[in-house]
Structure formats: structure tokens, C-alpha cells
Amino acid sequence: KSAMQVCEAEAGAELWSILKGCGVLGTIRVANVTWNPEGALSAVKQLSEFPVAELAREDAADLCSRVLPTDFPRGLARRIQKQLEKAVRSAWFNEAVREHKVVNLGLPLRALLIAKRDGKAKARALLESAGVTDASYIDRLLNIEQKKLST
Questions:
Q1: How far is CA 93 from the centre of its chain?
Q2: Which of 9, 18, 67, 107 is deepest in the core (most CB within 10 A)?
Q3: CB 126 within 8 A of CB 110
Q4: Per-residue confidence (pLDDT) for residue 101, from 0 to 100
């Protein structure tokens, strides 16, 4: 097995999918070729050790400074930080769905669309009428910056 396959197995399917989907792994692969293979692999190893629940509570800038070597190329580090912001949001969303046993993923997404179109009060009413009772979950969901949402 290659070192990346070992990291993938250690990370698990969900975390690996988040890191890959947000582009972090692709950017680290670029660093592997253009910079330092050992440093790039070290970053992947550290990221693959995070449980999804822990990643969901991380600050992307802080995480970036902890997992990337100090001599990591600045441009790639900035790109990875932006990608880690997406990864943290994805992990948070997955954890919130699990924690609140939201089976219908369309519900939170619909609430976000309604919040954009008709306001947060109507979105909150939709969630509450569907049985979502945790006020902190509703607040955090409805306070996601619209410009940070992507399709």
C-alpha cells in the first residue's frame, strides 16, 4: 500500500471524502510534487487522524498552522486554509445531521433556501414544524453565511 492509501484507511471514508471533496488532498498532492513529499505526507497524516466530530469544531486557520510545516509554500497554505474552511463546515453539517437525527437532508437545505428567500423567521418555523427542537442547531444553521454556501 502507498502512504496515501494508508492515510485513507486510517481516516475512514467520511473524513477522506470531506478532505477530497473540498480540494485539500488535491492541493497537498501539488505540494508533494512541487515542494517536499515528506512535508506534504506529514500534513495528510495529521489531517487523517482527526475524527469528523473534532474537525467540525476546529478553526481552519489554527488547524492549518498546526498541520502544515512552517516552510510550506504560502500560496498553497492559503489555498489549503480556504479548503479546510469548507471541510470544517462539511464536517459540522454531517455531525449536526447525525446528532439531531435529521434523516431528510433536504430539510436543512430547504431551510437555508427559505432563509435566503423569505427570511430566517420562516425558515425557523419550517424547522420547528418538522420537529427540530434544538435552538442552537437552528441558530447555527441559519447563521451560515450565504456566500460560503456552494452547490
A1: 8
A2: 18
A3: yes
A4: 66
